Each structure stands twice: as C-alpha cells, then as structure tokens.
Amino acid sequence: MRVIKTDIEGVVIIEPRVFEDARGYFFESYSRKAYVEAGITAEFVQDNESCSTRGVMRGLHFQRPPFTQAKLVRCVKGRVLDVAVDIRKGSPTYGQHVAVELSEDNHRQFFIPKGFAHGFAVLSDVAVFQYKCDEFYHPEADGGISILDGSLGIDWHVDPAEAILSEKDTRHPLLKDFVSPFIFNEK
User: Fold this and answer.
1) Residue 187 pLDDT > 90, yes or no?
2) Is the pLDDT assigned to residue 186 strictly greater than 90?
3) What pTM did the predictor assign?
4) Contact of 160 with 147, CB cutoff 8 Å
5) Which residues are designated catalytic?
6) Average pLDDT score over the chain
7) Can you tell me the distance from the alpha carbon of 69 to that of 116, in angstroms, rounded to the nearest whole number?
8) CA distance 148 to 161
9) Cα 126 → chain centroid
10) Residues in a beta bridge with 77
11) Angle at CA 24, nearest 5°, toward 23 and 27?
C-alpha cells in the first residue's frame, strides 16, 4: 500500500495495492500490521456502512471527548468527495480541510484522526460508504459543524441549494460559532 501525506499532519490517503486480471480484482483492504507500520495505530472497534444517493451530504461529524473517534473510510460503490476539517483548538491548521475523492474505481481510503470533523458528498447516482471507527458510537457525544459553512472553503461539487441533508445536519453551528472540545497537542 502507498500512504500519501496531506497538508494536515496525521490526515492521510491510502492507496492499496490492487491486483487485477480477467476475473476482476483483489486487494487487502485492511491489515493491522501494515497500517501500524505506516503509523496508523488506531485499534478499530466498529465498522459502519451507509448507502446514499446523488446530492446527499453527510457531516461534518465528530464525537466529543471522552469518546473521540479516528476513522478509516472508503467508498465501495460509486463516488464521493470526502472531507476532514481540523477542529483542534490551537492547531496551526485549525479550520483547514483536506478533501479527497473516494470511489469504487480508485479504491482509496482516507484516515481521519481524532480532533477532526468528517463529512462527504455523494457524486454518483448511488454510493456505498464504509467507516472503521476506533471508538463505539455514543449518541450523547455526537457533534458537528455545518457542512454548508462557506468560510471553510470546501468545494463539495454539489450545489448547496440541491443538497440533501438530514434534519440534524442542518442544525450544526458554523465554525465561527463553534466551541471546540479538542485541543491541539504537538506531541
């Protein structure tokens, strides 16, 4: 596998080694050993899957301490624009984001560390999206910032007027009104 560093420390794109022939393809979608060697030491405890149609936008979600989550995500059918936004107080990249297209064709994965809000927009007719999380879901710790916050500078490739959002996702605050529970730790 190839690990691609992004402009934000800790947020990485993973390209698996894909073996293709006349029968189709095969790749190792997760190997704890390989990920640890690449610096991703999260111990995943829960896998989730969602299915959405074109124009659906989910996010920007996170879980508050003490139930913070790191995520390893991928799109197994269709195509999405996936985004991680740094929401760690004191971080030199606070409010900045990394966006990557994930698709059934490129097989890319995206690692989002703790302290980041995560969301995606569906760019294909249908998308099946999978998440590996290193903490169980705790509804009482659920949080978010507005996926339509223009100050974040994210080009979602979806017209905001036509975006399909859950009611919950329409109520998240803008970044400027958000009080982050995360503190940047330089290590």
Assistant:
1) no
2) no
3) 0.95
4) no
5) 61, 131
6) 96
7) 9
8) 10
9) 18
10) 128
11) 125
